[in-house]
Structure prediction request, 503 residues.
Amino acid sequence: MSIARFSPFELLLLKSRSQVDTATLLLLAWVLVHRQHVSEGQRRRRLAQVTAQFRHGHELGPVMSIAHSQDLQAIQLAAEVLRKECAKERNLSVIHQAIAVATDDGALSLANHYILRFLADLLSIPPVTLNTLFHELTGTPLGAPDDPSRDAYWQIHDPDYHARKARDAEAAKQQHQQAQAQAEQRQRQKDERQQYKQQKQQEKQQEKQQRQEQASQAREREQQRQRERAHQQDQQRQKQHQEKQQREQAKREQQRSQQDSYQRNSDQNSNQNSRQQEHRQKERGNQQRTSPPPDRTTRALSVLGLTPGASRIEVRHAYRRMAQLHHPDRFYSESEHQVALASARFQRIKNAYDYLMQTY
Amino acid sequence: MRDLYQRLAVSPEADDQEIKRAVANCQHSALRQDAEAVFTIAERRDVYDTLHDTVSDIGRLRARLGLSHGPHWQGDVANDFSLPPDHAISRHDELVDRVSHAVSLYNRWRRLRAPWLLITMLVAGVGIGLALGLTLCLGLLPM
Prediction:
């Protein structure tokens, strides 16, 4: 026994003279709520205008307020009523009204793209019919909706932002240039100072050289006398020096041979180390690859209509059921378009199944 | 339309810091660029969130009505917003159940109203008689 009271829409549905009309009314109001750049009064008037033929016999106000509150349960109830009780001849007129309400002299909003397609699926209207109907009513073909989850969408739809960004970038550039100019000025000043210092130093050096030259001339005379004495001693020293050099050369050759052997050893060690590091890196890469992103698994499961945590056998059963339902050969008798759509669906299901079988 | 929250593995209610971290950790460069374009500016995120709510509502509706493989539900939207069918019973059946329950209660009340009226009349008469007797007793004693 449920304690919950009847919701406003349920009461409305019970009081209504025609449940289908009330359900259609709510769905049209839902479409209208998602239209942009329209005031509340305009919405209500438009709804009254479209549904003048309806036999519901209650006020439009509560319907609009339910649609505004985005009550998912009420919308689900309306969709169920519409699917159960709407005659096949009326399906087209309902979708006709929905398109008219969604687009009169305005572009279709993004949300309404999806809502219209939901209604078309609900009323089992194939895409071809929807496209032709849309084209007849608005004069423009029904294109794929824009995708605000991509960067390209915002580059088109938010040009102010990019103008702002360009301006910021220019300002930053100018600042950078100014800073550079200032730095150059400082460097020039520094250079000038350095040149001045260098000139001074050169002058000092020249003075020093003059003094040194005078002194050296005096020294040379004394040195000539000393050389004559020293010449005899030098001959003896040279003999001793040659013997020393021979000994040193022998020592150096020994040291070289030792160093070479040491270097070879160290090279081998370093090679081994680098190989070990590469091996570790490869292992890490493998570990990253083997752990798949968790959201892909849940997505694949939901494509098969399963909740996370389903077993392998359940996955296989779900795949068989889905494959039988959506196999393109089932739609062979209907139309080429149906077959193409079914094969796209089948491909999606098969991809999900293959993925799950590999990783699960 | 893709579900960026799902692809970044963040909840839609996450605050800016968490989302910034998730975007920075994202390995896919194109996805990271798109996520930066959407999430770094508050207005864009608002626009995206309203559409995200609507589309996920539609995904839920489709799952409940068994329309998650319809010909109009294809591509990225179908991949990201398809939900497994939750086992909520049909709202229409539930409404019918509740109405029939209310009707049976009403009918029972109608049917039981006559005997209950008799019983209440009897109880009221007995009560009045007792009260009268008591007053008489109280009035007679001092006399």
